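seq as requested:
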Amino acid sequence: MHWQTTRFTIDLDRPRVMGIVNITPDSFSDGGAHASTRAALAHSEQLLKEGADILDLGAESSRPGADPVPLAEELARLVPVLREALKLGVPLSIDTCKAEVMQAALDLGADIVNDIFALRGPGAEAAVAAHPRCGICLMHAQGEPKSMQAAPHYDDVVAEVRAFLRGRCEALLARGVAADRLVVDPGIGFGKTVEHNFALLARQRELLADGRPVLAGWSRKSSLGAVTGRAVGERLAGSLAAALGAVQNGASVLRVHDVTPTVDALKVWGAAGLIGLGRP
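struct tokens:
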């Protein structure tokens, strides 16, 4: 199995680590520590030294409760970092839900579009579908970031998330997007309760039935804090446990803040032959 992207064909026979680069002043996890161009690039280089396979650049916070960022501001944050990061020689993912940002990033040479709204925004699907090779990550989210955690409800969260992601993939396939460009993300923490999130982890194999690789984003999430009682900066152990659980249940990509510990945990599991037990 592989993930086709603009410049790279990513081999998914082993789990890949996507390092998070927040070019924002209001990230829930790092408090805007990498908001400047210089800081974001230094962080990108550090994540690569630690073993990241992919970098995910985001210039608008998508945390629940976040306010939207104007288009011009998002571009002003992202473009200088992207221009320089393209020289690093690794796949670059752009975390955005704006079609204009997707188009600008793809025009510059970005490899992947990672959209929390699964390309449902105006013009988003068309912008990405028109690109001949870029990778696409379609995430499930219920509601808008400002209010999505107010009262999330599902009759069967896993079945409903799976049906949504299947529908979004079918919409892209109908536009001529090659199947190997598509990865899906159940959207941990996006319009879901703690119970919903852990049901998605426990039953994650059900999401593999439609043949798409799964990206898992558990790093430092509030559900980990809910079960451990730990603050954001103290959730490393919980993040690693969730990441390994996701890999055991078939995840192909882990989106994380803490690259070194995640890479080490995967090496240990690999040495023990535990990686791949739940993969298709």
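The two ends are 9 Å apart (CA to CA).
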